Structure formats: structure tokens, C-alpha cells
Amino acid sequence: MKTTLGIIQDIHQHPERVSDIMRTFQLRMVDRVLVNGDICQSFHAFSYEDSIAQSQAYSSYILKHLGESGLECYFWAGSHESIRGFELPARAFSENYPYLTYVPQIQKFDFGSLDLIIIPGSDYVSRGGEFHLGTGNLKTGMYISENEKLSPISPKDLQTIPDEDSVFRYNNMSDLEKLVINPEKTIAICHIPPRFDFPNSVDIAHFYQLREYSFNERNEFGYIEKGIFPFEIPTEILLNIRRTDIIPKERDESFISLHAQRFMHVYSLDRWQVFVERKTNRGNSQLKDTYNSAGIQVAINGHFHESGGRAHTKEGIRIDEDKYTKNLFWNPGSLDEGKAGILTISPGIDCGISVSYESISL
Q1: 255 plus 226 within the same structural domain
Q2: 209-240 residue pLDDT tens
Q3: Cβ distance 109 to 99 under 8 Å?
Q4: Residue-wise over 272-285: b if at least 16 C-beta within 10 A, else e?
């Protein structure tokens, strides 16, 4: 028996579209809805307290429409959510709506012929984002940072911890490998994509990179990345962040390096910060390695709005809509841009699954 999953993600500016897409999913009678992170505003209020209240109100508006749809919904954090602005309403709505499930950490759901692994968080969190995804020795959990020391806490502790204290969630990618028993029937969904090395993939990003150029102790010239900003940001706002040059993406690395050295020489600078426009692969290499090690062949991501609607195999071969495949990496797109998707899963006679996708435009 076939299973259908409705997928939405990246809702920063148009929460009103949630009710529209949920009506579409109701009419299409999808079995479940997956909300793949970034269901909050960007964190730009003037005070931290106002930002918490603003985030809670925004998330609550979305969660209310999800809960009232009557559809079975699973949701989690991406790059922008804060602990106090998102986790508190997330837990409250999950308790009040029986079909609404909040997923705070890497978890597997057994749906019979399908194993779904949900991977919350992001390797790159924006200002205010507190749901981290990474590798290393830190165990999955919620932590408070005090005097340069991390201590584990529980969600109940949030009621007594002052707002000014630094709290975050961490998901360790290594948890995923322990959960994959039958990779041929497993689908992974994560806000961020794995790394690819070919054009037109789901991890192509268009952005401004803030670089700081300098010479190191061995007199080698290079840069460190100081920040990433979406290409959609108007240049006047970008230059309010840092009054400097903006180098277009048409310039290659050798030109940029030579330009930076000349500029620093003319103005006798030890270091120089500059914005560089780039359009390239920005997926996570550790997630790629984890998927490969676990045998993941079907994965869904969001995060890079500009790659919405792209679908291909692990090797980079394009997959068209409504075509069944056992190998699919797919970005359904951002609901802010009116994009969503439906994934259809068909069980095979070999205990594996085949999938096909459909792009939805509001």
C-alpha cells in the first residue's frame, strides 16, 4: 500500500500560507505532514525579550493551523529557531493537539514498510538560532553554557533558567547510523543538505560571504569566513553591517586575492574584510559521510531556497516528477515562495521502497 507525505519548510515571512497548503494536503489526502524546520521569523527584533515573544507568537500561529488541520503532523527546528522562542510553544501545542508531534532530537519512526529518520537542527544557525547539528564528542541533548562550561539540562529546567543564560540543543549526527537497520526502506529528512560536488544540486546556495583577508605567521595570504548572508539581502543593509566592497560572483579567486593584497598595501592594513558574492555547493560534508556510511539513498532537505524543486540521484542524475526511483535527493522548496511537495512511497517486493515526488505551487 502506498504512503504519501506532505512536506513544507522555510516559513519566515508568510505564515498565512500554512492554512492554504494544509487544505491542499487535506484534499490530496496525504497520510502525514512533515514540517522540515525554519518555521519562525528571522531574529531581528530590537530586544531579546521582544524577540522571544515575537518568535513564540509566530510559531504558535503556524502550529495552531497545523494542529487544527486534523492531519498527522511532525515538526522540528532548522537554522533559525531559538529554544525559548520555539521549544516552549512546540511542547505546549504537541500536548494539546493529539496529531501534532514535536521532534527535538534525531529519531526514527517506524511506519511499517517505511522507516523515517528525522534529523533536527542545522550546521549553520542564524542569529538567534539555538538548534545545532554536528559531529564530535558532545552527546545529543539540551545544554546550558555557564562560565565556559556546558551542563546538560532538561526542558523542565527552562522554567527556572534566566532568559539571559545561554541555552541550546545539540544533535550528534552519529546517532543516525545507530538508527538505520534497513537502509533500503529508510528515508532521512533534515533541514540542511549533504554536500554534493556538481551543479544544479540540492545544496547550491547563492549568498554573500564576509571574508577577512590577512597574512598568517608563515606569510601566507588567505582569508577566514566571518559570516554568511542570503543573496536576497539588499546591498544597503549589507553595507550597514560592514562598510566595505562587494565583489560579484563573476570574479575568480585569483582576482579577489590579488585585489585584497593591493587594497591592503595601498591603505597599510594588516587585515581587510570584504563581501564576496558566491553561488556554489554549501552542503554538509559530515552529513554526506554519515548518509554514505548508513546507506541512505533517499533524503529530503530544505535550507537553500534557491535550490527548491531540484531532485537528483546520489550521482547527480536529475529525477523528474512522478518517476519512481530508489535513489532520490530532493529539496521541495520554501513555503515563503509558495513551494511545497508530496512524496509518494511504494513498497517493493524486495522489502525496499521506491519513491516519487510532486512539486506543489500555491
Answers
A1: yes
A2: 999 999 999 999 999 999 888 888 888 889 98
A3: no
A4: bbbbbbbeebbbbe
Are 152 and 23 in the same domain? yes
Do 266 and 340 share a structural domain?
Answer: no
Residue 121: in which H helix or E strand, if any? Answer: none
Residues 61 and 169 in one domain: yes
pLDDT of residue 281 exceeding 50, the answer is: yes
Cell of residue 85, nine digits: 522562542
- Is the pLDDT score of 51 beyond 90? no
Residue 123 sits in the same domain as residue 268: no
Do residue 104 and residue 69 come from a single domain? yes
CA 44 to CA 209: how far, in whole Å?
20
* Number of structural domains in the chain: 2
Burial classification of residue 101, based on how many CB atoms lie within 10 Å of its CB (0-12 exposed, 13-18 middle, 19 or more buried): middle
Cα–Cα nearest to 340, from 1, 3, 14: 14
Residue 95 makes CB contacts below 8 A (sequence gap 6+) with: none
> Can you give the residue range of the structural domain that contains 274?
204-280
- pLDDT (0 to 100) of residue 165: 86
pLDDT tens figures, 243-255: 899 999 999 999 9
**How far apart are alpha carbons 356 and 358 in whole angstroms?**
7
- Which residues are registered as beta bridge partners of 343? 5, 357
Cα distance between residue 68 and residue 319, in whole Å: 34
* Amino acid at residue number 121: G
Residue 75 and residue 209 in one domain: no
CATH number of the domain residue 124 falls in: 3.60.21.10
Cross-strand pairs, 277: 208
Q: What is the pLDDT of residues 163-189, one digit of tens each?
A: 778 899 999 999 999 999 999 999 999
Contact 261, 221 (CB under 8 A): yes
**Taking all residues of the chain, what is their mean pLDDT, rounded to a whole number?**
93
Furthest C-alpha separation in the chain: 70
Which residue, 280, 311, 336, sits at the end of a domain? 280
- Say if residue 68 is in the same domain as residue 182: yes
Backbone angles phi, psi at 235, to 5 degrees: -60, -30
The 10s digit of each residue's pLDDT in 346-360 is 998 677 899 999 999
pTM score of the predicted model:
0.92
How does DSSP classify residue 291?
H
